[in-house]
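Lecture 7, part 2: worked example. A protein chain together with zinc ion.
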Amino acid sequence: MDNSELVAAAKAAREAAYTPYSGYAVGAAVQDERNRIHRGCNVENASFGATICAERNAVASMVAHGGRSIAAVAVVTADGGVPCGMCLQVLAEFAPATEQVEVICVAMDGSSRTFKLSDLLPHAFRSDAVARTPGGVQGSDLT
Ligand SMILES: [Zn+2]
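Predicted complex, written out as C-alpha cells:
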C-alpha cells in the first residue's frame, strides 16, 4: 500500500483532535495486517493525566475492529513530532517485529521523516520478557 492513504487518514484524524489545553493537535493512523486503516486523534482532559494520545487511540480502534498486527503508522502534527514513549510501547505491543514497522512523522508543511519503530524504541519491552517470568503469560496465550 502506498503510504499516502495512511498519511491522509492521519491528517483527517488530526482535524478531530480535542486539544483545548495544549493546542497541539495530533492525528494518527495505523495500518493493520489486513491493510485496514484505523484512525485516532489526541483527546485532552482537564485532569491532564486522563489525556490520551492519538497513536494509542488509533491502536485501540484497530484492536476494537479485530486488528492485532501493525504494518505501518503515520502521525501528523504541526511540527512533525514523533510519538511519545508510552505510545511507542503500545505500538511495539502490536508490532510483529519493531524493525518491520515504519513510523511516518509528517508536519503540516508537508515535510516528513520515516523511522523504523526499532529506531525510536530500540529496546522495547516485549511479551516474550513477560513470558519468561515465572507465572507470566505464555506467548501462545497472546493471540
Ligand atoms: Zn503518546
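The mean pLDDT is 93. The beta strands are 27-32, 37-41, 70-77, 102-107, 112-116. Keep this in mind for problem set question 3.
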